[in-house]
């Protein structure tokens, strides 16, 4: 059975001006349940992640400022919203959802987190609505427990996975691949093992051609036995922040390329949702739901 991490706190309302992006975390499982792609048995509610696991990836001083809600006003502005206990608990549960997901993926081939993809959080900073880096933390957890030998993180959100690259920069067993808008946030890029910067306005055929070449390269270079995928849908032409020009059809084909490659190579895969900021929430939800629909076709 394909398992999907979700918790009511995922849809916790942010301060005014930030609430719209949170709607998808309630609407995605709702749509999948409504159409019959999943049942309630596919969903599980993660507990908060432990401090011990967090400290495999984040510096102690940064974590303690998060934990004690003492992060400076400047650092909170960098994150993008005021820190509070519920938002912290939300992030802790998201991170554990990704960690739980790696075990389900090892058993079942693939697992999802309805949230996650918090790839802008670095070892000692939060940024871009990210407090803790769920996939980097889960990668270090797998390696620390010696459950996996080599990891590939495929980040196809429109924004570079700068925090993921920074956290894992000195870990030779983890390979980071980020294909992202060159002129988009974050404006200070980190160095991934494979960075593929894209010009503004790239559309379906060119995007998929570039991905085809570099996805093969990433697998060849990484030689992974586990894969993380960040499937942000802010690559859509309708996205307010993305600056690319992909259709939903091409976005689905992007996902199919990643999922099919992992299926063909018999590699377990954990998927976190990442960003999506189209003006019409239906575009965001439908594009994200396509990732799940594909997974149930391929792995279900």
Automatic annotation (TrEMBL):
The protein's GO terms of the molecular function aspect are: histone deacetylase activity; hydrolase activity
Question: Which Pfam family is one of those matched by this entry?
Answer: Hist_deacetyl
Top-level division of the source organism's lineage: Bacteria
Q: Which InterPro entries match?
A: HDAC_classIV (IPR044150), HDACs (IPR000286), His_deacetylse_dom (IPR023801), His_deacetylse_dom_sf (IPR037138), Ureohydrolase_dom_sf (IPR023696)
Residue ranges constituting the Histone deacetylase domain according to the UniProt record: 24-288
Query: Which Gene Ontology BP annotations are present?
Result: epigenetic regulation of gene expression
Alphabetical keyword list: Hydrolase
User: What family is this?
Assistant: Belongs to the histone deacetylase family.
Name of the protein described by the UniProt record = Acetoin utilization deacetylase AcuC
Organism, scientific name: Pedobacter suwonensis
Q: Upper taxonomic classification of the species?
A: Bacteria, Pseudomonadati, Bacteroidota, Sphingobacteriia, Sphingobacteriales
């Amino acid at each position: 059975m394909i398992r999907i991490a979700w918790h009511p706190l995922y849809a916790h309302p942010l301060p005014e001006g930030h609430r719209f992006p949170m709607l998808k975390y309630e609407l995605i499982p709702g749509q999948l349940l409504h159409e019959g792609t999943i049942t309630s048995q596919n969903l599980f509610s993660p507990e908060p992640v432990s401090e011990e696991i967090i400290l495999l990836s984040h510096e102690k001083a940064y974590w303690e400022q998060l934990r004690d809600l003492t992060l400076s006003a400047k650092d909170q502005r960098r994150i993008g919203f005021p820190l509070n206990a519920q938002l912290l608990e939300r992030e802790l549960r998201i991170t554990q959802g990704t960690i739980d997901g790696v075990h389900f993926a090892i058993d079942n081939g693939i697992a999802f987190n309805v949230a996650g993809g918090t790839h802008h959080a670095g070892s000692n900073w939060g940024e871009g609505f990210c407090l803790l880096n769920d996939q980097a933390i889960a990668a270090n957890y797998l390696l620390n427990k010696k459950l996996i030998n080599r990891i590939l993180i495929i980040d196809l959100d429109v924004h570079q996975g700068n925090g993921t690259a920074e956290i894992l920069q000195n870990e030779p067993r983890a390979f980071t691949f980020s294909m992202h808008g060159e002129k988009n946030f974050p404006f200070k890029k980190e160095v991934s093992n494979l960075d593929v910067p894209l010009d503004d306005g790239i559309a379906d055929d060119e995007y998929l051609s570039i991905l085809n070449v570099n996805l093969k390269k990433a697998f060849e270079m990484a030689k992974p036995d586990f894969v993380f995928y960040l499937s942000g849908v802010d690559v859509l032409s309708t996205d307010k922040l993305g600056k690319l020009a992909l259709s939903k059809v091409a976005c689905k084909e992007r996902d199919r390329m990643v999922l099919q490659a992992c299926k063909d190579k018999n590699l377990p895969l954990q998927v976190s949702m990442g960003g999506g900021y189209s003006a019409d929430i239906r575009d965001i939800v439908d594009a994200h739901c396509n990732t799940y629909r594909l997974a149930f076709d391929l792995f279900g």
